[in-house]
Every structure is written in C-alpha cells, then in structure tokens.
Amino acid sequence: MQNKLGTLWLIGAGNMGGSLLARWRETDICDRYVAIDPGDPPIPDGVEHVASIDEVEGDPDIVVLAVKPHLLEPASKGLLARLKEDTLVVSVMAGLQLSRIRETVGGGKIVRSMPNTPTAIGKGVTGLFGTDLTERDRDRLTRFYEVTGVAAWLEEEAQFDALTAVSGSGPAYIFRMAEALAAAGESAGLPADLAYRLAEGTVSGAGALLAHDPRKADELRRAVTSPNGTTQAGLEALDEDPGLPALVRNAVRAAAARSRELASE
C-alpha cells in the first residue's frame, strides 16, 4: 500500500472545492484534512473546519486554493509562512495564471489545475501544469488527482484554454446533448419521463462503453451503424450543414476564447 499524502489544506470549500474534498476524504488519500472557509459549507466527516489559516495547527503538505479569484489575496494571507520546502500549492481557480498566483501567495511550488464536475464521483478529468517540480512532486499530484479520475499533465500553460473548453466545459455539452435527445424522443411520440430515462441511460451507457472498450469512438460508432439502417439515417441528419462536428468545434473555440478573456480581466 502506498503512503498517504500527508496533511491537506483546502482553502475555499464551495461547490468545486467541496466536491473534491469529499472525494479525497472518501478515498482516504491524505492523513489529515483541513477545510479553511469563513462560511458554513457542508463539511465531510473527518475534516477539520476553521475560518482562517491562523487557526490551523501544524503545516500543510498540499494546499488547494479553491476560492473565487478575487478572494485569493485575503484567503491566502499568512499562507507563505506556513509552507514547507516541499509543500505543493494547487490552484483550481479558473483563468488565474501561475505568475499571478505566485505573486499573490508570495512563493512556493505553485501548480495550476482544471478539474471538471465528474471528479466528485471519481470519473473526472483534471488538467495539471507546474514549473520547477521534481519527479516526486508530479508523482504525488498524479496520485492525488487519480482518485478523482484522469490526471492529465499539460506541456505548457497556454494549453489551459483549450483544456478548459474541452474537458472543463465538456460535461455541459454532454448534458445538453442528453436534453436534446430526450426532447427529440418526446417530439417523436414518447412520454416525457420515458424519453428522459432513455436519453439518460443511453448517454451514460455510451460513455461507460467508450471508457471500457479498447476501440476508439469512431470504431464504436461504425460498429453500431448498419449500412442503410436507422443509425446511418440519424447520423447523416446530424452531419447536415453545418453538422455536429462544426457545431462542437465552434463551441470549443467560443469557450477557449472566453477562458482567455477571463485570464486578462
């Protein structure tokens, strides 16, 4: 059994931070868990809850910054003095670049991350990037995030905009597809509740098959598409101008552009 990852401080226990914390606590990846939040968020059993950094005894091995970007400065006050030489400081704040986080915190081993919502059930994807990290640092963070799903290291920070547009926003695209499929089923004559159950089961089942089957998405699509059959007719309609690939490409471009705008605000 691998060693645990020491003491975790989560600064900001809102929606994303709280979901990640619950998953880390559930999988028992760390020895100690501290949520630092002046509010009254739901806190999992076995997690200490304090309002500020100066109330915590002992120093952290991993710090996760999960506050709104404009709250980073007050929320991280006093953090630098508590960092050990090998403490990892991980940001889940959308749009904030490493240089700005390092400037605000004052130093430390800063890592930028972008998780998505399925991390809450261990089926998420998290993009990671950091500079001046040792192999041990990367191994620790890979283990830390693999209990939430896939941990994907980026080659350069500039790739975060595209990653945000694909995996960060991607679950919403899939949920929108499920909505559209259910609505189309209803318009084709199915009761609304049945159409929704069929769409939900189809989307979740197809995702599970894609994750577990060694074949790629295009191979799985061809396997279910009989020549001149119903699936081919439906796919041809999806590909009519401008077509689904173009719509998805436009959605990713728009989300990536907005990510770049947020970084400059």
Automatic annotation (TrEMBL):
<comment type="pathway">
    <text>Amino-acid biosynthesis; L-proline biosynthesis; L-proline from L-glutamate 5-semialdehyde: step 1/1.</text>
</comment>
<keyword id="KW-0560">Oxidoreductase</keyword>
<keyword id="KW-0963">Cytoplasm</keyword>
<dbReference type="GO" id="GO:0004735">
    <property type="term" value="F:pyrroline-5-carboxylate reductase activity"/>
</dbReference>
<feature type="binding site">
    <location>
        <begin position="11"/>
        <end position="16"/>
    </location>
    <ligand>
        <name>NADP(+)</name>
    </ligand>
</feature>
<dbReference type="InterPro" id="IPR053790">
    <property type="entry name" value="P5CR-like_CS"/>
</dbReference>
<dbReference type="InterPro" id="IPR029036">
    <property type="entry name" value="P5CR_dimer"/>
</dbReference>
<dbReference type="InterPro" id="IPR008927">
    <property type="entry name" value="6-PGluconate_DH-like_C_sf"/>
</dbReference>
<dbReference type="Pfam" id="PF03807">
    <property type="entry name" value="F420_oxidored"/>
</dbReference>
<dbReference type="InterPro" id="IPR028939">
    <property type="entry name" value="P5C_Rdtase_cat_N"/>
</dbReference>
<dbReference type="GO" id="GO:0055129">
    <property type="term" value="P:L-proline biosynthetic process"/>
</dbReference>
<dbReference type="Pfam" id="PF14748">
    <property type="entry name" value="P5CR_dimer"/>
</dbReference>
<keyword id="KW-0028">Amino-acid biosynthesis</keyword>
<keyword id="KW-0641">Proline biosynthesis</keyword>
<dbReference type="InterPro" id="IPR036291">
    <property type="entry name" value="NAD(P)-bd_dom_sf"/>
</dbReference>
<feature type="domain" description="Pyrroline-5-carboxylate reductase dimerisation">
    <location>
        <begin position="157"/>
        <end position="262"/>
    </location>
</feature>
<keyword id="KW-0521">NADP</keyword>
<comment type="function">
    <text>Catalyzes the reduction of 1-pyrroline-5-carboxylate (PCA) to L-proline.</text>
</comment>
<feature type="domain" description="Pyrroline-5-carboxylate reductase catalytic N-terminal">
    <location>
        <begin position="10"/>
        <end position="95"/>
    </location>
</feature>
<dbReference type="InterPro" id="IPR000304">
    <property type="entry name" value="Pyrroline-COOH_reductase"/>
</dbReference>
<dbReference type="GO" id="GO:0005737">
    <property type="term" value="C:cytoplasm"/>
</dbReference>
<comment type="similarity">
    <text>Belongs to the pyrroline-5-carboxylate reductase family.</text>
</comment>
<protein>
    <recommendedName>
        <fullName>Pyrroline-5-carboxylate reductase</fullName>
        <ecNumber>1.5.1.2</ecNumber>
    </recommendedName>
</protein>
<feature type="binding site">
    <location>
        <begin position="66"/>
        <end position="69"/>
    </location>
    <ligand>
        <name>NADP(+)</name>
    </ligand>
</feature>
